[in-house]
Specification:
about 575 residues, alpha+beta, four-stranded antiparallel beta sheet, 17 helices
Length: about 575
């Protein structure tokens, strides 16, 4: 069975049969689209262009404290500007959304304002370090409203807020950087003062053991040791001089001994023994002087009483005690002086009466007195040497102790110095950065750094951006044609009538024997001509109306409609 395939002629016949089903809906849809295009109120947009100017002073000379990218700062400024408080203030200032105020909350009105405000970045392709990237050169701000004056005022207010917020934001960042660096510098300054105080206390505590005094201490130790050696040598020379003077005193006392009785010795036993040693070093044992001294020693040794033996023992003990005290104290120490006086008293008391008598007799001899004076001077010099040597030994002990502590003190001292140097270096670095931050702050305050400048101010719009009436009319025209054809085709599909021999053959399954064509008479021809004329007039009027609406009324219609809507209080 042959498939029922419709030809162009069938569709034309279908359109002719359903001309009213197609024309009426199409006409209604077209009228609706025209009405919609005409009654929609115009929306105006005022736009401003803001240029991002680079820093006027080279960044090598003065660096800015704001290092973020331009698009990042613009988005940040947008978030700060588009707050509910700022937008509510703008809405109240210009009386925006007067009808919606009673129905919407402040947050909803602010959201409606955000939907009407637009931000568009203007980027440029740049090549940096072999990579393609985009740099923001400028951005556009715009605001939409049914009133062109309000659109301009809203855009102007947004521009003002953006410019002021940019200046405030950059200045605040520079101020915050300056304050931060100043606070950190003050912290390090306080830390430096604290370490300096600790270092001063440490130096005072270990004043003699500091590392820088090590060479001086070692030099002082060497000098004091040499001086002690010199003092020991001087003391030895004085001892020899005293021995020599006492020998001379013994020789001078021999003349006195001849005038005294033979039962008494002219000098002490110790001095006679020293004189004997001196004479034996020069003469033989049979020399008359040696023999005389030997006789005197015999007389003194044989003439000692038991009391004198006890005195000798006490004198020996006192001398041993004096030697022990001198090992620990100087000659000026009270204990040393008291023991010395005890030794002198025992020495005087130990002398036999003959010796004391001989001494009394020698006191009037000038030679004897001169020798005695030289011996006393030698003893004074020895005493001074001992005192000075004791002082030097005390200094030597102190210096040796300081040197032994130097290595332990050095560790803590260098640790404090290292902390002090590190803090000073960080403090100097912060002070240098603080000066740079102050220059950057001055740069921002005088607007010599990167800034936003108004390139194109917002103008009063004379042409709405929406609705696009031409687009609405065109779309309405296409929709009306499609809707008419669709409804006509739907009606044809719902009609069960058999039209044409092909439909009959398709249903019956066999071709008819005879096909009688439609015989058109004069009435049919008149009706067809009349319909063509009517549809042509209707189509021409619709087409002419669309052309007039688009060409003649499109531009001024927005202004007329704006005035009409404004008078009716709808704007």
């Amino acid at each position: 069975m042959e498939e029922d395939v419709k030809t162009l002629k069938d569709y034309l016949q279908m359109a002719r049969r359903r001309k009213y089903d197609i024309a009426i809906p199409a006409f209604l849809f077209l009228v609706v689209s025209v009405v919609v295009a005409l009654i929609l109120p115009p929306v105006y947009q005022s736009q401003a262009t803001i240029l991002i100017e680079q820093q006027q002073i080279p960044s090598d000379l003065v660096k800015s404290t704001v290092t973020s990218y331009a698009d990042e700062r613009i988005n940040l400024i947008q978030q700060r500007v588009m707050t509910v408080d700022n937008l509510t203030r703008i809405i109240d200032k210009f009386g925006l959304y007067s009808k919606e105020k009673d129905k919407l909350t402040a947050a909803e009105l602010a959201e409606q304002f955000r939907m009407s405000a637009h931000l568009e970045l203007i980027n440029a392709d740049i090549i940096s370090q072999g990579r393609n990237s985009k740099a923001t050169l400028a951005f556009k701000l715009s605001f939409d409203d049914k009133n062109p004056q309000l659109a301009q005022k809203g855009t102007n207010e947004l521009v003002t807020l953006f410019l002021n917020e940019n200046v405030r934001n950059r200045t605040e960042r520079a101020e915050e950087t300056t304050v931060f660096l100043e606070e950190e510098a003050q912290k390090f300054k306080g830390e430096i003062q604290k370490i300096e105080n600790e270092l001063a206390e440490y130096k005072e505590k270990y004043s003699g053991s500091l590392p820088e005094l090590l060479s001086a201490n070692l030099s002082s130790i060497s000098r004091i040791e040499n001086e002690i050696q010199q003092l020991n040598l001087q003391e030895k020379m004085l001892d020899e001089r005293k021995i020599s003077l006492k020998s001379q005193m013994a020789v001078a006392g021999q003349g006195l001994l001849a005038s005294t009785t033979d039962s008494h010795a002219p000098s002490s036993l110790a001095e006679l023994k020293q004189e004997q040693v001196r004479l034996l070093s020069k003469y033989s044992a049979t020399h008359p002087d040696v023999l005389r001294i030997k006789r005197q020693l015999t007389i003194l040794e044989s003439g000692q009483a038991p009391e004198e033996s006890d005195a000798s023992a006490k004198l020996q003990d006192a001398r041993q005690e004096l030697a022990k005290l001198k090992q620990h104290y100087s000659d000026n120490h009270p204990d040393v002086k008291a023991t010395q006086r005890k030794v002198d008293d025992l020495t005087d008391s130990k002398s036999p009466p003959s010796t004391r008598k001989l001494t009394d007799q020698a006191a009037s001899n000038p030679a004897f007195l001169q020798i005695k004076s030289e011996i006393d001077m030698a003893e004074v010099e020895q005493s001074s040497i001992r005192t000075h040597r004791a002082e030097l030994q005390e200094k030597l002990k102190l210096l040796e102790m300081n040197v032994s502590q130097t290595h332990q003190v050095e560790r803590g001292y260098y640790e404090l110095m290292r902390d002090l140097d590190n803090n000073k270096a960080k403090y100097n670095e912060l002070k240098a950065k603080q000066l740079e931050a102050k220059l950057a702050l001055t740069l921002e305050e005088e607007q010599k750094a990167e800034k936003f400048s108004l390139l194109e101010p917002p103008l009063l719009p004379n042409k709405p951006i929406k609705p696009n009436r031409l687009k609405i009319l065109f779309i309405g025209f296409l929709v009306s044609i499609g809707a008419g054809l669709g409804i006509g085709y739907l009606r044809e599909m719902m009609d069960g009538s058999i039209r044409g021999h092909r439909a009959l053959a398709y249903i019956a399954g066999a071709e008819p024997l005879v096909v009688v064509p439609y015989i058109e008479n004069q009435e049919d021809r008149d009706r067809t001509r009349k319909n063509v004329i009517n549809f042509s007039i209707m189509a021409g009027m619709l087409f002419l109306g669309m052309i007039v609406a688009v060409h003649m009324l499109y531009m001024p219609l927005d202004i007329l409609w704006y005035k009409a809507w404004n008078r009716l209080g709808l704007i």
